[in-house]
Specification:
Blueprint lengths: L1 H7 L5 E4 L1 H5 L8 H12 L3 E5 L4 H8 L7 E4 L4 E3 L5 E4 L4 H8 L8 E5 L4 E3 L4 H4 L9 E3 L12 E5 L3 H15 L3 E7 L2 E6 L4 H12 L6 E5 L5 H6 L2 E5 L4 H6 L4 E3 L6 H16 L1
Parallel strand pairs: 1-2, 1-12, 2-3, 7-8, 12-13, 13-14
Antiparallel strand pairs: 3-4, 4-5, 6-7, 6-9, 9-11, 10-11
Helix pairs in contact: 3-11
Length: 280
């Protein structure tokens, strides 16, 4: 791992980061120190890509705090926005497939959410989920899914404190929809389904091609299973210490760095900047 880092760090031109549990601390904010490091990266012409499971309206409000424009991959790859906030790529789930999933008998203790373009529709109020947004720029709407006529959605999201309940639900859904959906646990308590073609790494690859870079020139940071492919694809993939232990075990070849609450991403990137200054 360390040998790979020493060989590759001077070739890094692209910085890719997840948000929750990675770039954001447990208060769901970007620290002043992290902001200063990323502003220096921007000044040194590194390509910055933020890749998150969050909806683009929600994520845009967060990355605006960096003070400079970035590429934004949201809803685990279902949307790509340029630094100028232009929508470059969009892919929704099939409405009939979504409808059939919501017709299943889902434990009412599980919070079910549909990501729509301007609102997220939820089976019930979930204060823990609401806390992820400091300002409700992407507002929740409590609905009875049985009353909906339109089931087109960006992604389906389920959350519950009991991970096993979500695993059981995942298995039930994939039993009949494995050809339709791609799934990921962004956190052990968060299960997400997107269209089969949607993944963070696939969306990032589109940006890299557009900008003339490759994954070999990228460093990526993440803490969830929805980050797995982008961590593996990057020249340097780094896992946060606060990531689930089973993710670390699944990717034993990748280095584990300091937690999100310790500014792990920014502290690691200072080494990249120091080497950049020396070689410039």
């Amino acid at each position: 791992m360390k040998l790979k880092y020493k060989m590759s760090k001077k070739k890094i031109k692209v910085v890719i980061s997840d948000l929750d549990g990675t770039l954001l601390n447990s208060d769901h904010t970007i620290s002043a120190y992290t902001k200063s490091v990323f502003q220096e990266l921007h000044k040194q012409n590194f390509l910055i890509i933020v890749a998150t499971g969050r909806h683009h309206l929600d994520a845009m409000a967060i990355v605006n705090n960096l003070g400079f424009p970035v590429y934004l991959v949201t809803s685990n790859g279902a949307r790509i926005h340029s630094p100028q906030k232009e929508l470059l790529y969009s892919f929704d789930m099939n409405g009939e497939s979504v409808k059939s999933v919501l017709a299943l008998e889902i434990d009412p203790e599980i919070t079910t959410v549909l990501f729509r373009e301007t609102v997220w529709q939820t089976s019930k109020t979930n204060n823990k989920l609401n806390a992820f947004q400091k300002d409700l720029v992407y507002p929740p709407q409590v609905v009875n899914f049985a009353d909906l006529d339109d089931f087109n959605a960006i992604k389906i999201f389920f959350t519950h404190e009991d991970h096993q309940k979500l695993v059981d639900l995942k298995d039930r859904i994939l039993a009949t929809h494995s050809d339709d959906f791609h799934h990921a646990f962004s956190l052990p308590i968060c299960l997400e389904f997107m269209d089969k073609s949607v993944d963070k790494s696939a969306a990032i690859a589109k940006i890299l091609e557009k900008e003339g870079y490759s994954f070999k020139e990228a460093i990526s940071f993440g803490d969830g299973f929805n980050d797995e492919k982008m961590l593996n694809a990057a020249g340097i993939g780094l896992i946060m210490s606060n990531a689930p232990e089973n993710l670390k075990s699944k990717l034993p070849h990748l280095e584990v760095i300091s937690s999100n609450n310790e500014d792990g991403v920014a502290k690691y990137l200072t080494e990249i900047l120091e080497d950049y200054r020396v070689s410039s």
